[in-house]
Design goal:
Helix 2 packs parallel to helix 3. The protein is built from 4 helices and 4 strands; from the N terminus they run E-H-E-H-E-H-E-H. Strand 3, helix 3 and strand 4 form a beta-alpha-beta unit. It has 98 residues and is α/β, with parallel strands linked by helices. It has a 4-stranded parallel β-sheet, with helices on both faces. It has a single domain, classed as Response regulator (Rossmann fold), CATH 3.40.50.2300.
């Protein structure tokens, strides 16, 4: 059985490592990325079974990446899980599909 691949885009190393550790324990192949532009380039060329996106990233924010991934490329239909420390309702609504 082929393992499912998950793109984990999180700039805080401890969080990224912890998420990938637990995904690996469940049999998922984790591709960790810390930079928004790097994640965007990878998501445009390689399909993933799931994308986990932090909202606040260096070089490109998670909402911009999410919208771009939804428009074109191999991950248009991939589930996206947004991570954030933000608490405002407006931030939650901004991450919703339109």
């Amino acid at each position: 059985m082929e393992s499912k691949s998950v793109l984990v885009v999180e700039d805080e190393r401890n969080i990224r490592d912890l998420v990938c550790l637990h995904l690996g324990l469940e049999g998922y192949e984790c591709v960790p990325i810390a930079d928004g532009k790097e994640a965007m380039a990878l998501a445009a060329e390689k399909p993933f079974d799931l994308i986990i996106l932090d909202l606040m990233l260096p070089n490109m924010d998670g909402v911009t990446i999410c919208r771009a991934v939804r428009r074109v490329g191999p991950n248009r239909d991939a589930p996206i899980l947004m991570l954030t420390a933000r608490r405002e309702e407006a931030d939650k609504v901004m991450g919703q599909p339109r």
